Amino acid sequence: MQQLRATIVGIKFFDGDVDGKTYKSTTLFALFPLENNGRQKGMSVAELKSPDPALYKKLEALPFPLEADISVEQVVARGQIKMEVVDVKPVGRVNVATGEVAAVAAKP
Questions:
Q1: pLDDT at position 67, please?
Q2: Does the domain spanning 2-102 belong to CATH 3.10.20.600?
Q3: How far is residue 7 CA from its own chain's centroid?
């Protein structure tokens, strides 16, 4: 398992059936720095997925954007390796005006 620290700017979930097949997931939208190589700089939003829709419930009442420690593990799906979110631990709320992080408590 690997730990990532990132600013989560949004979340969404799905828990339902499509064409008779059940799907469950939570998607985190998180900011990560771009490599500053002379052709790009700044931040980019990446989608991190989890098969657990309960992750959304854990985060939904918190103010966004928020700083969090994200636990991910590598899984193989259809012959490709991808990262899957296992857990999220909020560590602070990000003040968008100043960039400062203030402590925030997660729902148990």
A1: 93
A2: no
A3: 8
- Which pLDDT belongs to residue 45? 95
Statement: residue 42 has pLDDT above 70 = yes
- Structural contact between residues 72 and 2, judged by C-beta atoms closer than 8 angstroms: yes
Q: Say how many C-beta atoms besides its own lie within 10 A of residue 48's C-beta.
A: 21
Quick one: tokens of 93?
């709320």
3-state secondary structure the chain: CEEEEEEEEEEEEEEEEECCEEEEEEEEEEEEECCCCCCCCCEEEEEEEECCCHHHHHHCCCCCCEEEEEEEEEEEECCEEEEEEEEEEEEEEECCCCCCEECCCCCC
Give the domain ranges of the chain.
Answer: 2-102
